[in-house]
Every structure is written in structure tokens, then in C-alpha cells.
């Protein structure tokens, strides 16, 4: 005659704040100029919390979003953290190591305080990871500076597949977790008229049209 106890409510995923970018956390945005964590093709933030680094990732995908820590901006021999949307609707944080062009899942996962959500065809997650870890070739020390590799793509039954674009973006220089910047990288659709050559071509064409043909 007694009612069954109800499950405790699950805290909703707190939206990623971009107003803090460049102030209390570092951010990378890839996509349309002025985009935020909910509209960029890819978004990443990082900040120090005690002995941990908190990462926030989001991408326009129904599969996975990841960040890799590399010594040379090239895929291969990299420590990778990925947020993967599985068939049950959950977002799981997984640890990978790039062997050449192939990502091998590593059972030793340094992530903690994990949370993730799949909404509006976006995978978004948040997790912490220790700054210092015991020596292991698959897990880097984050107190050192690394190039950051940004990638996202589809998943099949919770397993990641090839990233969405052939040449995923990377940080232009090594990243220090102790330095907070807000860096924007235009996606391919917004790079067409941003190069010096294209700007020079536009100026020349405009001058030609104004002067007229002989």
C-alpha cells in the first residue's frame, strides 16, 4: 500500500557561457563569425579548477566531438578525449590514442565529473581531467603546452567513425592551459574572401569596373 519512491531529479546540463571566453577560460570557435557554443561548427573551452582542467566541447554533429593533444599538429601519436553520442541517447566521455590515422580506445580514462547532452543535433559535453598524470605515452601532462587538434564526426552504434572534414582545424600555436584566449577560426565557407589574394582580386575587379573598358 506504500507508493514506490521516485527517482531524484537529474540536474539539467548547464549551458556553456561564452561571455567568460578570454577572461576566466580559454576558447576556440570554428565556424561562422560571431558564433557561440550553440552555433559554431565546433567549440572548445578550457579552464583551471584546482588540480584539474575543465573542458567543454560542442559540435554540430549527431555522433562525436573531440580534442587531441599533439606535439606536431599532425594526427598520429596523440592523446584524444572524445564525447560520443551512443544509440541510447547518452553522451559518454572516452579516451583514445591516435595510432597513425586510427583512433584506438584506451581503457585508462582520466576524465571525471563527466556530463553530456545531445540536443538540437549537437553533441555537447563537460568534464575535468587532472593537470598532472603518471608517465604514460597515451596520456600527456597538461601543464606542458601542446597543439590542440579539433575534430567531430558521425558515430555508428556508439563507435566513432571518420571526422566530418578532410583537414580538421588545429590551433595555430601550442596552447598553454594557464593562458586564456578567445580564438576564432573561420570555417571554409567563410574563408573565401578573407585571404589577401582574394581581397586584391576584388580591389582589381572593382577598379576595372569603375574605369570601364577601352
UniProtKB/TrEMBL annotation:
InterPro entries assigned to the protein according to its UniProt record, in alphabetical order: DOMON_domain, FRRS1L
Every DOMON domain range: 40-155
Pfam families, per database record: DOMON (PF03351)
Keyword Membrane: yes
Membrane-spanning ranges: 193-211
A single GO BP: regulation of glutamate receptor signaling pathway
Protein name (Swiss-Prot/TrEMBL): DOMON domain-containing protein
Organism: Gulo gulo (Wolverine)
Lineage, highest ranks first: Eukaryota, Metazoa, Chordata, Craniata, Vertebrata
Amino acid at each position: 500500500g506504500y507508493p514506490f519512491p521516485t527517482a531524484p531529479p537529474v540536474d539539467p546540463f548547464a549551458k556553456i557561457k561564452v561571455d567568460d571566453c578570454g577572461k576566466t577560460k580559454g576558447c576556440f570557435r570554428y565556424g561562422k563569425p560571431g558564433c557561440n557554443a550553440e552555433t559554431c561548427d565546433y567549440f572548445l573551452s578550457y579552464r583551471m579548477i584546482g588540480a584539474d582542467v575543465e573542458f567543454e566541447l560542442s559540435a554540430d554533429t549527431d555522433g562525436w566531438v573531440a580534442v587531441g593533444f599533439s606535439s606536431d599538429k599532425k594526427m598520429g601519436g596523440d592523446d584524444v578525449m572524445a564525447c560520443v553520442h551512443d544509440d541510447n541517447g547518452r553522451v559518454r566521455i572516452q579516451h583514445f590514442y591516435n595510432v597513425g590515422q586510427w583512433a584506438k580506445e584506451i581503457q585508462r580514462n582520466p576524465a571525471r565529473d563527466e556530463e553530456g547532452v545531445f540536443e538540437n543535433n549537437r553533441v555537447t559535453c563537460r568534464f575535468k581531467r587532472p593537470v598532472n598524470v603518471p608517465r604514460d605515452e597515451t596520456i600527456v601532462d597538461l601543464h606542458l603546452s601542446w597543439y590542440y587538434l579539433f575534430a567531430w564526426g558521425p558515430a555508428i552504434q556508439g563507435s566513432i567513425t571518420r571526422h566530418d572534414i578532410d583537414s580538421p582545424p588545429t590551433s595555430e600555436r601550442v596552447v598553454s592551459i594557464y593562458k586564456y584566449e578567445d580564438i576564432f577560426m573561420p570555417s571554409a565557407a567563410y574563408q573565401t574572401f578573407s585571404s589577401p589574394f582574394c581581397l586584391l582580386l576584388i580591389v582589381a575587379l572593382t577598379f576595372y569596373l569603375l574605369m570601364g573598358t577601352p
